[in-house]
């Protein structure tokens, strides 16, 4: 995996952003930025060179699914790797995310190995 | 309330805490709670809508949640602060998500709201419906916590 890439972590819970940052740092990723909802994430995306988005689903203002759809509707970001990390574990959620163009999907709670495996698949 | 609906909440609670906080969790005997007084010092509450409307509350003793969040973040936590409230919100969210996954396998689909968190000694837990409040106590090496499940009649 190319660990020099810049990753945007989007979650309304600071705890989850810290857990994901800890895991990503252990995997060697150092270039990490954060946003606490989809609206802020979009602003970051418009102003910084982001290589991969890791986003929660259920957030105020703009959900992760709405962010994903907005990203995929924009020709600049249509191929941007997008990993959904969410507590939404029902089949319909996964189907909706896949239909919206998610690159991969991790259900909370997760292990560091699960995040690593999904990133390997997305980034290879 | 169908008692079979309780099992997904027990399974979800054990799975979430063992996975995220690396802590062994032992459930006690469920009981019907009569009052609104929280057993714990910090409580996460989340509303559910679907075939029935209801709420789940997860209420932790101070020592218990400090141990859990210390394990989750890999750094010692020694006071109930905004970090702890945030973590309780996320734990409640994850327990809700896993429980809804279990309920879906029983043919019962629910959606969840965004959780809220209340902190302080002797606070009240307000469920959104007037159904019976089923409480399930849990024990960990770090202390005790209780989940409450309440669905409309």
Unreliable runs of chain A, pLDDT <50, ≥5 residues?
none
Order of helices and strands of chain B: HEEEEHHEEEE
- Could you report the average pLDDT of chain B, rounded to the nearest whole number? 94
**Helix residue percentage of chain A:** 40-55%
Proportion of residues in extended strands of chain A = 15-25%
Tally of helical runs of chain B: 3
Mean pLDDT of chain A: 96
Order of helices and strands of chain A: EHEHEHEHEH
Q: What is the overall number of helices of chain A?
A: 5
How many extended strands of chain B?
8
Structural notes for this entry:
The complex is a heterodimer of chains A (124) and B (153). Chain A has 124 residues and is α/β, with parallel strands linked by helices. In chain A, 44% of the residues lie in helices and 19% in strands. In chain A, strands 2-1-3-4-5 form a five-stranded parallel sheet, sandwiched between helices. In chain A, α2 packs parallel to α3. Chain A is globular, with a radius of gyration of 13 Å. The N and C termini of chain A lie close together (7 Å). Chain B has 153 residues and is α+β, with helices and mostly antiparallel strands. Helix content of chain B is 33%, strand content 29%. Chain B has three helices and eight strands; from the N terminus they run αββββααββββ. Chain B has helices at 7-21, 62-73, 82-105, and strands spanning 26-27, 31-33, 42-50, 54-60, 110-112, 116-119, 133-140, 143-151. In chain B, strands 1, 2, 3, 4, 5, 6, 7 and 8 form an eight-stranded antiparallel sheet that branches. In chain B, β3 and β4 (54-60) form a beta hairpin. The mean pLDDT of chain B is 94. The chains are: A alpha/beta (124), B alpha+beta (153). Chains A and B meet through α1 of A and α1, α2 and α3 of B.
């Amino acid at each position: 995996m190319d660990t020099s890439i810049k990753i945007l972590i989007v979650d309304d819970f600071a705890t989850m952003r810290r857990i994901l940052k800890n895991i990503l740092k252990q995997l060697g990723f150092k270039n990490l930025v954060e946003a606490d909802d989809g609206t802020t994430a979009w602003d970051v995306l418009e102003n910084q060179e982001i290589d991969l988005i890791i986003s929660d689903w259920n957030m105020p203002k703009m959900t992760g699914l709405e962010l994903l759809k907005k990203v995929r509707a924009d020709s600049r970001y249509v191929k941007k790797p997008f990993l959904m990390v969410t507590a939404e574990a029902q089949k319909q959620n996964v189907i909706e995310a896949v239909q919206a163009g998610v690159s991969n999907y991790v259900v909370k709670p997760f292990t560091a190995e699960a995040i690593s495996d999904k990133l390997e698949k997305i980034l290879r | 309330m169908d008692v079979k609906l309780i099992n997904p909440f027990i399974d979800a609670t054990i799975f979430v805490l063992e996975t995220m906080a690396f802590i062994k969790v032992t459930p006690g005997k469920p009981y019907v709670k009569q009052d609104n007084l929280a057993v714990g010092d910090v409580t996460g509450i989340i509303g559910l809508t679907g075939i029935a409307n209801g709420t789940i509350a997860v209420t932790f003793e101070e020592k218990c949640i400090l141990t859990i969040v210390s394990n989750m973040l890999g750094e010692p936590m020694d006071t109930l602060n905004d970090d702890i409230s945030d973590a309780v919100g996320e734990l409640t969210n994850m327990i809700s998500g896993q429980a809804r996954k279990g309920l879906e396998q029983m043919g019962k689909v629910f959606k969840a709201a965004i959780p809220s968190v209340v902190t302080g000694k002797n606070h009240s837990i307000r469920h959104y419906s007037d159904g019976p409040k089923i409480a399930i106590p849990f024990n960990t090496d770090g202390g005790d916590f209780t989940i409450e499940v309440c669905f409309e009649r």
